[in-house]
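Design request, tokens follow.
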């Protein structure tokens, strides 16, 4: 009870102090004086304080502006900016500012899951409090909730539409809304609506960069409402761009919807340098780069690799290294789908002298005759996948056979029990995502060697790259359903295992 009494007294003292104040400070000024970040702690002038860019200051002042009656002009603010522009930190700062100057307020932070909500906006908010000695003693924490001296609390909450219905929030923050494409997340948006009793004193805040046109329907609807149907504010004002001439800010207002939308597509922060973007372009697909670093809407699929990249990896006989095929460790990878689809075998090894390069040493595909299944065994005159695999294992030093277990489990298990080679079931989940991303990097960097095998080139050209929801990796998918990509998938699995085994 002592702890509860102390907390109650702390809240009462804080509220009394709040009531005695007659002037609430302007938001940008308060944030730059009281919201602390670790990046500036060593600066003797800033000592941990956050510094906003000019475009952020102006957009933030407009977002939190009030009308003649003292009501907030906007009930929905969409703060969409390119990656590494402090979107989540600014959202945390606004939450802290409002909670610090609101009595008994409710502030909720929602993301694509509870962990994301707590590890981004809420994390930056807690960190700012801990770094600020003036605030750290006045705030208390219980689970995912931070409580201010005015009795207001800020809480990260899970996606639970039924459990959160009927809230009386002063501010609702939706983080990374581009990922909200499941039904529960869309329902959560609907349920977490503003209360009519706080009309003009509450708003929803969305922070996110662009999403995928086919999936991010909720965010795209807001984009249409704010950017396409809104009008641009301050077209005559110019703001600095770090890699070009100053340009107007992409800030839009839709009065009918009481909505302000920042949709910035330009790098405007001093740390967003040409060198940084050159590095990012080398590791991201073009669509990923445009979506995250230029805030542009893209398709969730794109060409896996430009065919020019693939052709640049072809080496002539004169360039091909000599090695003893009976001693050089080889990896075989198998991929097949349903019985009327193709079957692909890829074999490869490390380059004997160039570290990190991979050689393609054998490629073959089988196509079924229309209306028939592939003959997996075949004959001596026309060997099928199984006879071919047995021959490769006999003639080469095959240290592993990686396979897609969906259709090949029975054959792989039977051959493994014969003791022909080590067979590894290759996961089509996380392992495939890692392998496909690595395979693309090998091709881009010309570290994958091949002799221009036409079937393999065709399957590479048939492949698209689908970005996974975590933004970090991609998966090889068919460009259209009738096209075949089995050899591309086999080569991805095989190169992954060649590099993993490091033989």
């Amino acid at each position: 009870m002592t702890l509860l009494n102390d907390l109650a007294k702390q809240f009462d003292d804080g509220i009394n102090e709040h009531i005695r104040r007659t002037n609430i400070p302007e938001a940008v000024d308060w944030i730059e004086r009281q919201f602390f970040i670790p990046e500036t702690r060593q600066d003797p002038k800033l000592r941990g304080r956050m510094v906003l860019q000019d475009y952020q200051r102006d957009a933030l002042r407009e977002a939190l502006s009030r009308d003649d009656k003292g009501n907030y002009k906007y009930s929905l603010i969409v703060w969409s900016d390119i990656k590494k522009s402090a979107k989540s930190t600014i959202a945390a700062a606004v939450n802290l500012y409002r909670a610090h100057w609101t009595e008994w307020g409710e502030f909720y932070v929602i993301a694509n899951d509870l962990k994301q909500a707590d590890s981004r906006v809420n994390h930056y908010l807690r960190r700012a409090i801990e770094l600020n000695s003036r605030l750290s003693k006045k705030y208390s924490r219980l689970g995912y909730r931070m409580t201010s001296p005015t009795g207001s609390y800020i809480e990260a909450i899970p996606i639970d539409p039924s459990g959160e219905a009927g809230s009386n929030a002063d501010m609702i923050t939706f983080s990374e809304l581009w990922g909200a494409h499941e039904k529960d997340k869309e329902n959560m948006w609907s349920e977490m609506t503003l209360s009519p009793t706080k009309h003009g004193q509450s708003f929803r805040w969305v922070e996110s960069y662009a999403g995928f046109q086919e999936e991010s329907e909720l965010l795209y609807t807001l984009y249409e409402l704010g950017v396409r149907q809104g009008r641009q504010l301050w077209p005559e004002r110019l703001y600095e761009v770090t890699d070009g001439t100053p340009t107007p800010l992409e800030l839009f207002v839709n009065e009918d919807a009481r909505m302000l939308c920042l949709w910035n597509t330009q790098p405007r922060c001093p740390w967003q340098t040409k060198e940084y973007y050159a590095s990012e372009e080398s590791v991201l697909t073009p669509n990923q780069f445009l979506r995250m670093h230029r805030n542009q809407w893209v398709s969730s699929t794109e060409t896996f690799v430009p065919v020019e990249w693939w052709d640049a990896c072809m080496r002539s006989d004169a360039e091909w290294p000599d090695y003893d095929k009976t001693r050089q460790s080889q990896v075989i990878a198998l991929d097949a789908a349903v019985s009327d689809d193709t079957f692909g075998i890829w074999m490869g090894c490390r380059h004997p002298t160039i570290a990190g390069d991979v050689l393609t040493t054998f490629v073959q595909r089988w196509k079924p005759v229309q209306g028939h299944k592939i003959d997996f065994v075949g004959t001596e005159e026309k060997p099928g996948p199984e006879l071919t695999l047995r021959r490769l294992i006999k003639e080469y030093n095959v240290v592993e056979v990686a396979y897609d277990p969906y259709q090949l489990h029975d054959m792989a298990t039977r051959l493994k029990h014969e003791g022909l080679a080590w067979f590894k079931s290759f996961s089509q989940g996380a392992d495939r995502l890692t392998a496909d991303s690595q395979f693309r990097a090998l091709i881009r960097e010309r570290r994958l060697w091949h002799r221009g095998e036409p079937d393999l080139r065709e399957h590479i050209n048939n492949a698209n790259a689908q970005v996974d929801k975590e933004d970090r990796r991609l998966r090889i998918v068919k460009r259209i359903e009738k096209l075949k990509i089995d050899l591309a998938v086999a080569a991805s699995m095989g190169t992954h295992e060649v590099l993993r085994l490091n033989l």
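Comment from the thread starter after seeing the answer: thanks! The chain has a mean pLDDT of 88.
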